[in-house]
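Quick review question:
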């Protein structure tokens, strides 16, 4: 599973680690467990679309989903990921740090979270 150009190593909701996720009756996580042509794009956070990012000192404070408006945000400066116009092979990107515990949170989700948690 990929978000932008980065591979998702783990899927987590709150403190719950997700071992399997579904969209309807189709499994969509872990990677490779679904036919790629069978899914619709539910959300898309584009690092190459500057109008979708709100930056504060080079860090991402808000990132707007260009499909359905599922915005991600981080109010705490120390927890914000870093934006770079040339971070991935000279392409724009957002870098998250596990050691710095940087993350963005969503107030609404494009995924059926309750169904995902129930099937894990």
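Suggested answer, residue by residue:
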């Amino acid at each position: 599973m990929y978000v932008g150009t980065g591979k998702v190593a783990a899927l987590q909701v709150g403190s719950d680690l997700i071992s399997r996720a579904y969209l309807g009756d189709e499994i969509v996580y872990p990677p490779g467990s679904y036919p790629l042509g069978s899914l619709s794009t539910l959300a898309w956070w584009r690092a190459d679309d500057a109008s979708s990012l709100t930056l504060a000192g080079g860090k991402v404070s808000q990132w707007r989903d260009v499909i359905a408006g599922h915005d991600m945000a981080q109010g705490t400066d120390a927890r914000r990921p870093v934006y770079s116009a040339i971070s991935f092979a000279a392409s724009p990107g957002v870098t998250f740090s596990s050691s710095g515990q940087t993350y963005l949170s969503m107030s609404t989700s494009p995924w059926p979270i309750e169904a995902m948690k129930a099937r894990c």
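Why it works: Confidence is low (pLDDT under 50) at residues 1-5, 115-120. The CA atoms of residues 82 and 110 lie 24 Å apart.
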